[in-house]
Amino acid sequence: MRKEANILFVGVGGQGTISASNLLSAALIELGFDVKMSEVHGMAQRGGSVSTQVRYGEKVHSPLIEKGTADYIMSFEKSESLRWIGFLKEEGKVISSLHEIRPYLVNVGKEVYPENSLSELKEKGINVISLDAQEKAIALGNGKAANMILLGILAKELGLSQELLERLIQQYFKPQLQEVNLKALQEGYRYDETHSATLTI
């Protein structure tokens, strides 16, 4: 189990960014770590950017992750990884869904969507795990469970017990949502990072 880390969760409103970070924080607290978490909602209700910062270790003094210090950026929407990349440390890793949610200004032609955002990061030598978590979650029965797939990948990276997260899902999630989220978490733990290189980004 990794003893400390700075993790930046990013996405847009409605993707379960905060739910995933809350579940991770609950697991880390149960393991005895000092955990600090902060949320920035932006215009989440309109599909705006949402970020959550989670820091854990033996002792954490501030909930805020400074630029260039994040060990992981977990992005639920692929362009958000590019927006927040300045927070990643040199040896850090991006875990990103390939899912696209185009903001209003892109749809009306006032901004251009960064189609090749993840390719650009990889070309710069940044370690990126990328997959279509949304598509995988839909195949499991609920596209909103994509956040648990990504959380499973991150938790495996951290060395966090799958059984602990499964127990917390059963404890905190509504009964009708438990099965699909458990399956999604398991999908994340099973995910083979080497497959990401074959995906179109």
Automatic annotation (TrEMBL):
Keywords: Oxidoreductase, Pyruvate. Residues 13-189 form the Pyruvate/ketoisovalerate oxidoreductase catalytic domain. InterPro entries: IorB_Oxidoreductase, Pyrv/ketoisovalerate_OxRed_cat, Pyrv_flavodox_OxRed_cen. GO terms for molecular function: oxidoreductase activity, acting on the aldehyde or oxo group of donors. It comes from the Bacteria. PANTHER family: INDOLEPYRUVATE OXIDOREDUCTASE SUBUNIT IORB. This is Indolepyruvate ferredoxin oxidoreductase beta subunit.
